[in-house]
Amino acid sequence: MYSDGSDVTVREREVEHTTSKDGASPVTVVTGYFDVGEMSAGWYTVAVTHGRPDHLPLVRIFIGDWSESAGPDERWGLRIGIAPNGPSLLDWPEDDRAEAAPIFTPLNPAQVLGTPTEPQIFALLDKMLAEDSRL
Q1: Among candidate residues 112, 125, 109, 116, the one with its CA nearest the CA of residue 34
Q2: CA–CA dist 107, 67 (Å, integer)
């Protein structure tokens, strides 16, 4: 997807209420899709851990071809932490990278920053934050 985001619309989907990995804090996860006309341009999740100011809201953006015929080299995922001073791309933990490998390619900051993908990802993030009423 190469776009400045102006042709993308946000479609809100599920809201999940769960707990943190350590089971100590409630977590809300919202899911949504990026659409361009009738086509999907990707999807996202946003996880917020309640009562834990040390845990940044975590955004995951997934782009690429998610049809059954596509492979992990045609699908990408990014992690973005939302800090008070703004968003920043994050590395994927090794366990998550290994789990993702057969499904999609997890991209780390060095694989995005300074590439044509960088402004697109931040345009999608801006669109999501502006248009998803749950955020």
Answers
A1: 125
A2: 19
Q: Token pair of 63, please?
A: 């782009």
- Rounded CA separation 79/67 (Å): 22
The residues that bridge with 34 in the sheet, in sequence order, are 10, 42
Q: What are phi and psi of 59, to 5 degrees?
A: -105, 135
What's the residue count for the chain?
A: 135
CB 57 within 8 A of CB 47: yes
**What are the structure tokens assigned to 116, written together?**
């044509």
46 exposure class (CB count in 10 Å sphere: 0-12, 13-18, 19+): buried
Q: What is the 8-class DSSP label of residue 104? A: -
Contact 135, 15 (CB under 8 A): no
Tell if the pTM clears 0.85, that is, is over it. Answer: yes
Domain ranges of the chain: 9-129
Per run of 10 residues, the mean pLDDT along the chain (length 135 residues) is 72 94 91 90 93 88 90 95 93 94 95 94 94 93
